[in-house]
Every structure is written in C-alpha cells, then in structure tokens.
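>> received
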Amino acid sequence: MDVALRAKGITARLALVLSTAAMALASGSAVPGEEEEEPPPEDEERVSSQALLILVTLLIAALLTSYYLQRWRIRVVHETVLSIFAGMVVGLVLRFSTGSYIKRMVTFDHTVFFNMLLPPIILNCGYNLQKTAVARNMTAVLLFAFVGTVISAVVIG
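>> returned
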C-alpha cells in the first residue's frame, strides 16, 4: 500500500518532465540554413544512447525529488514545479548544444504523449476520483459535459 502511494502519479510526472523538456526544444530545434545529414550508424547509436540517458536521468530525478519531498514533508514547493524546472533546464541545455541530431532524438512527439502517456494519467485520475464529490455535483458535471460538447461541435464542426 505504501509503495502504491509513493508510485502514485509517476506517469504524470514523467509526462510533465518530458513534455517540458521537449517544448523548450521545440521552438529552436532546427537551425535555419543548417543542412540535415544522417550520421554514421555508430554515431547514431551513441547519440540515441545519450538521449535515452537524458530521459532516464530526468525520470529518476523526478522520482527522487518526489520521494524526498514526501519523506521530509516539504510543503514549500510542489514536486510538479521541480519537474517543470528540471525539464526546462535540460531543454535549454540541449537547445543551445551544438548537435542537431540529439535535438531530433529528444524532440517532443505528440502521438507518443497522446497514445502512451496520457491514457495512464486519465486512468489514474479516474481511479482515484471521489465518487461522493461527483455525485454531489452531478448537475454541474452533466451541464458542462453537454454544453461543452455542443459548443465544441458548433465551433469545430
């Protein structure tokens, strides 16, 4: 039970760190006028292992900060804020680094986020949802659901 409480929200933190790092890269990932050439396979392997090391290090850092913030009962700063800043720092370092190939390796891919990271976050939120609070506010929930759907259908469709 204690392990489950500590592990709660790991996927959300990972998605937050990765998306923050990738968004910091997104605006400047390609240098204008620089030719994109494929590196040799050994360089590609080295760069992909470096990108994997960066992402795993960010995940471990997010997990450790969450663990120590809960263990020492630090309430001044939330672990999400630290995850956002860690992602921003890594994204800025990668953005101003010289290699453009590693920037492409860690660039944010929205399909991975929507297909692999977002469903567990939604499942976790739905699983931990307090049913009494939803039942108490059922009219507001249904009103926002139906009115929001109608507005979205009219505006988009």
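>> DSSP finds eight helices and no strands in the chain.
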